[in-house]
Amino acid sequence: MLSIAVLIGSLRQGSYNLQLAHTMKERYINKLDLEIADIRSLPFFDQDIELNPPSAVQQFLRKVGAADGVLIVTPEYNWSVPGVLKNAIDWLSRGDKVLIGKPVMTAGVSPGMMGTIRAQLHLREILASPGIQARLLPPAGSEIYISSAALKFDETTHRLVDESTLRFIDRVVDKFIEHAR
Ligand SMILES: Cc1cc2nc3c(=O)[nH]c(=O)nc-3n(C[C@H](O)[C@H](O)[C@H](O)COP(=O)(O)O)c2cc1C
């Protein structure tokens, strides 16, 4: 079974993006071993300490480096990726550069109509940069933009319950498994 490190671009307890990650962890439990890699405890990237980073950074790099692939689930902030996620990716782009060649898929949820399109487009550019060079799941037919979150997530269970969205994600996950093999 593929081990997948999950990066969540929101630190909010009630985050819809976190709820999507939990939904996927449970739904694909027989196909993927999804484990959230904590980005909350990472300090701001600082080139002065990159060669001898704090243990939170070392653990994070080890965890992502050891995974067979990465799932990034992120909201959109001001038409781009949240700073906390960019900071985590900047750490991953240095040292052993653990994202080079790593299979990556992305997804995002917004309460509004646009479903994080702009953020994920920016994210794909970032993931192609020289220090990162992730092996991104080709976007055609695999773009997970979840809009109108309040209508699609259950307020009590905090899980995605919209059937057509879930079936679409099923297909993308199967493509990702093929891509990551
Ligand atoms: C600083 C900030 C900027 C935001 N900018 C956008 C944006 O550009 N596009 C958008 O669709 N939503 C934007 N939002 C609304 C977020 O989509 C919303 O807060 C969402 O619930 C955050 O994701 P989460 O539920 O996973 O925490 C912004 C929210 C914040 C706090």
UniProtKB/TrEMBL annotation:
<dbReference type="Pfam" id="PF03358">
    <property type="entry name" value="FMN_red"/>
</dbReference>
<feature type="domain" description="NADPH-dependent FMN reductase-like">
    <location>
        <begin position="3"/>
        <end position="130"/>
    </location>
</feature>
<dbReference type="InterPro" id="IPR005025">
    <property type="entry name" value="FMN_Rdtase-like_dom"/>
</dbReference>
<protein>
    <submittedName>
        <fullName>NADPH-dependent FMN reductase</fullName>
        <ecNumber>1.-.-.-</ecNumber>
    </submittedName>
</protein>
<keyword id="KW-0560">Oxidoreductase</keyword>
<comment type="similarity">
    <text>Belongs to the azoreductase type 2 family.</text>
</comment>
<dbReference type="InterPro" id="IPR029039">
    <property type="entry name" value="Flavoprotein-like_sf"/>
</dbReference>
<dbReference type="GO" id="GO:0016491">
    <property type="term" value="F:oxidoreductase activity"/>
</dbReference>
<dbReference type="InterPro" id="IPR050712">
    <property type="entry name" value="NAD(P)H-dep_reductase"/>
</dbReference>
